[in-house]
Amino acid sequence: MRRAGVDALWISEAANVRYVSGFTGGKDGKVLITPQGETLYTDARYAVQAQEESRLPFFIARPPATLEHAAPALRDLRVGFEAESLSVADLEQLRACWAGATLVSTAGLLADLRTVKTPDEVRAVREAQALADRVFTQVRPMIRAGVRELDVAVEIETLLRRAGAESAFDIIVASGPRGAMPHGVASGRVIGDGELVTVDMGARLNGYNSDMTRTVAVGTPSDEMRRVYRAVLEAEQAAVAAVRPGVSGAELDALARGILTGHGLGEAFAHSLGHGVGLMVHEGPSLRGASEDILRPGMIVTVEPGAYLPGVGGVRIEDLVLVTDDGHEVLSSSEREVL
Ligand SMILES: CSCC[C@H](N)C(=O)N[C@@H](C)C(=O)N[C@@H](C)C(=O)O
Predict the structure, then answer these.
(1) How does DSSP assign 119-170, residue by residue?
(2) Domain extent for 239
(3) What's the pLDDT at 27?
(4) Residue 26 clears pLDDT 80, i.e. is over it
């Protein structure tokens, strides 16, 4: 906060509220940090939850009463707000209620802290990924010709739910030509013989997410798609092997992109190499060309090169990787097929 030039901070992003307070009532939860201390604000629906989950003193009200309660403590202070997660309407309300304060736009203050996980957070992501691996292994045999993509997704979702988790995002099951869509969420399409099927899934367990993609073969895919698969696997394995403290997100992205370019698939790799995973599925650090992020021990990132050929199909292989003091540990354990 000192570096950002603010005396107080209004935290409105649900993941950040949870991070600093433990409170999980994302529908209505805010934290105000002032020189005098921290206060959790929520409404009466979450009073018991706030008491149970958070060690912070809390105040139960709805805006504008919430903001009016905070106003006296903020007079003449520079108050930071989270530019990424505050709507224009909410900002206008802050301006109206905190006329005595100077509002300062901040970005990424908490998100930067969240990039390096505590041992408890590493344990939480590890458990989420272990569950996702168990579920994928259980579901893998049902991915065969004649089955709908949706049926695969429903089975994954059901198993996650039964285990006390939920799906971290809309499950991607993209078969045959639909594989050319990096985010081809499961449709009613019936999987055909000789097709590749990309399954991208994550578990959210105790608030922490996992993220993993496997592309599997149903029958014998074409020579072209087997060539694409091998190229993506080569890029993925090389990038995972290069994960260590000190390497930049941009270097890892360039490494994988260079290998795919060597196979004539540079243009087909239509997204970044990876991202951090924790309370949010997509968080820092970023493994993309324009990233200035440098990997540090305790970060958890995905490594997920892909190649997408419109009208033909696609491949993505993604592992979840913990940056350790002397290298890395791959947290995802589902088998990668050899084609
Ligand atoms: C809508 S959540 C999907 C999660 C999925 N596993 C995933 O991360 N897909 C990547 C291709 C992705 O969206 N990458 C982002 C960071 C990007 O390249 O902008």
Answers:
(1) HHHHHHHHHHHHHHHHHHHHHGGG-STT-BHHHHHHHHHHHHHHTT-EESSP
(2) 119-330
(3) 84
(4) no
Q: In angstroms, rounded to a whole number, what is the distance separating the alpha carbons of residues 281 and 246?
A: 23
Burial 84-102 (b: 16+ CB within 10 A, else e): ebbeeebeebbeebbeebe
Distance 24 CA to ligand 1 centre (A): 24
Q: What is the CATH number of the domain that holds 59?
A: 3.40.350.10
- ipTM tops the 0.90 cut: yes
Q: Are residues 207 and 220 in the same domain?
A: yes
Whether 181 is in the pocket of ligand 1, judged by its Cβ within 6 Å, is no
Are 251 and 272 members of one domain?
yes
Q: Tell me if 282 CB under 6 Å of ligand 1.
A: yes
CA-nearest residue for atom 15, ligand 1, is 272
- In which band, very low, low, confident or very high, does the pLDDT at 314 lie, cut at 50, 70 and 90? very high
Question: Hey, which of 181, 282, 321 would you mutate to test ligand 1's pocket, going by the most ligand atoms within 8 Å of its Cβ?
Answer: 282
Residue at which a domain ends, from 74, 98, 114: 114
Q: pLDDT tens-digit profile of 73-114?
A: 999 999 999 999 999 999 999 999 999 999 999 999 999 999
Q: How many whole angstroms from 160 Cα to the centroid of ligand 1? A: 20
Quick one: 187 exposed, middle or buried, by C-beta within 10 A (0-12, 13-18, 19+)? middle
Q: Tell me the three state secondary structure of residue 91.
A: helix
Task: Please count the structural domains in the chain.
Answer: 2
305 C-alpha vs ligand 1 centroid, how far in Å?
11
Look over the chain and give the mean of its residue pLDDT values, rounded to a whole number.
97
Q: Is 244 in the pocket of ligand 1 (CB under 6 A)?
A: no
Ligand 1 midpoint to CA 185 (Å): 12
Residue 36 belongs to a domain:
yes
Of 89, 114, 139, which residue constitutes the final position of a domain?
A: 114
Q: Tens digits of per-residue pLDDT, 227-244?
A: 999 999 999 999 999 999
Q: What is the pTM of this model?
A: 0.95
Tell me, yes or no, whether 232 and 125 share the same domain. yes
Whether residue 125 is found in the same domain as residue 243? yes
